[in-house]
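Notes from the 1:1 (GR / supervisor)

We went over the backlog. Supervisor wanted to see one worked example end to end before approving the batch request, so GR pasted a single chain during the call. The sequence is below; no edits were made to it. Supervisor asked that the structure be written out right there so they could see what the output format looks like.
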Amino acid sequence: MRTMRPRMEAAHERRCHTASLPSLQEPLLEHSTAEAEAEGQKDKRIVVSKKIKAESLGNRKKSKRALLQAQPLSEIVPDGRPTDTEVEAYEYIRQQLRDLNWVVKDPSRSPEGQVWTQNQCLAHPEMKAAFGRKRPENVVKLSEKLLWVIEAKRSRKQLDVAVDEAIEYYAAKINALPGNVRAVMATGVAGTEESGYLMRTKIRIDGRWHTVTINNQDATGLLSPADVRVLIDTNGADVHEFAPSPWLFVHAAERINEVLHKGGINKNDRAKTIAALLLSVIHEPPNLETALPVLIGEINTRGEAELRANGKPEFAPFVRILPPTNTTNHVNFKAALVKTILALQNLNIRSAMNSSTDVLGQFYEVFLKYGNGAKEIGIVLTPRHVTRFAVEALGVGPTDLVLDPACGTGGFLVAAFDYVRRNCTPTQLDRFKQYNLFGIEQESYVAVLAIVNMIFRGDGKHNITEGNCFTTFIEPRTIKGHASGQFSEQAAEAGREPITRVLMNPPFAQGGKEYRFVSRALSFMADGGLLFGLLPLDSMFGAHEEKVWRSDELLKKHTLLGVVTLPDELFYPAALKQVVGVIIKKGVPHPKEQSVFWGRIVNDGYLKLKSKRLPGNEMKLPRKVLNDMPTVLPLLQNFINNPRSVDANIPMICKTAPIDFDDPLLELLPEVYLDSAPISKKEIQRAADDLARETVSFLIRFRKETIVEALDAEA
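Structure output shown during the call:
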């Protein structure tokens, strides 16, 4: 029964529930940014109030005591005046903890608080007994028995000193006391806002201190409650498979965009600026305590060296940063570079690149999406959960040659890389990343992001090239006994096309006819190869050129295996057409009797909130959101592997059915073929009641009108 039409809209009620954070060994408390900020304002008012009251009494001794009690000790120098650099560190640490979802309140005064600052530690009996006259910058309450000490120093050169003092002056003394309270983590913070901050964290395991790593890279920022929970629960020093939460990316992207704006870096240059800075921090951050020309020189040199080492020196000009021509702008420009590098460090971006998540693509996606950069430079970035869905649907293997002819930042290629990594041996992965991944990107400043993405992941960048997919060709090639391909200026011989898998999202901003990109991609492929592409809905039901393409090329030359409608706000906030994912088998004319998998994903687990669209379960306050992907994906996988023997039919969700070739419009959309949901007795009763009420209302109104007309006639 076909009751749904192409433009049909479905209304689904979304009920969101707030999920609390899991516990360590004892509960970690939830974070409230608004309450934390209010507490910070309250602390400032207490300082001012105490100072005024003390001075009004004319008692210098009392005034000094009040200030010391209210103001962090590290902000007081011998002559009693605050030190600007230490005030900066104090504020910086508190803000970072707040951003990471810690409740920055005094636990001794607020039941939900998690962070003691300076003299607030005196209210805790064990810390008061252990510290004496010294105070760390902060102590974080991990649980009733577990603590994390943070100590700051003014110079970046004093990072080791900060870490040692956090352990020896504070953590060790707590651990020497009788009882169950233990300091299990210690962090050193060194630097200023102008020079930038360095951080190192250690964790105590079986009586010994170990440097905390994330995906086997030293952690360069503070840790979130979730990260700490992993360390405590595993009794280890590495947070494996770490990737920053999407909401943290959004905050960082917005902050970096604002910083770059204030630094005079326009939107068109921000993509290459981010690429250059990411390359500069691959091994360790550059020296930020230098003049702007020197800093820019070091950033550019590092970027060029990384690209040269990875066989892509020709892309160096596209990530080269140039200083402002007007020297009066140098201060703001340098501040923007420094703050951006700090923001990347705070995200532990180097560590995150080693996870199985496309962190760079995800960060760059939100960086452009929520800073309006994508609109400015005319690109559309494919959401990461869609790239994973496509790769898992096709089932990419270590011997497949994979192409994305409009690869953007490399999201599909990274998804393929990660899928193969999870399902093959190290030897197979090494061959795959060297010889089997191909990407074409027309815009140089975007192609370099794809290259950087793969550099961070260890390899896979060799076969990413700048170019137009309509004038670029790929010929087969054998390298060290392994089947591969190479870019060339002429097409491969018919029957010798090398590509076996295509994953693509054509550039929607180029004026329509996106189906041309699908046709072009199929020309690179060997017969029997599989393609997954995103296309606007009108490509699959349009009545003019689109219909000619569907009938005369798509179905006459190839097999349509599946069509899956995706959410209409998939690319939000970009105002783009709704899309479908099409799965095509190259070189086999479509058998009229063969079924097609028709799928419909209305809910993908994402939620639109405050002009953002993020996964509900990974928001700052997790939400429960409907997700049709886990239902559709395994059925689609089974059908692709066995299209003649797999049947499926879930009303409103998916169905396998042959194409209706008698349809004069030849509409190839799931909404044409899916069955409606069965109607329940309650729905029938409700409809009958509504109809009865409407009928009675009509009869009463009609009778009144008839009587009035009769009276008017008699008059």
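Supervisor's comment: The longest helix spans residues 681-714.
Batch request approved.
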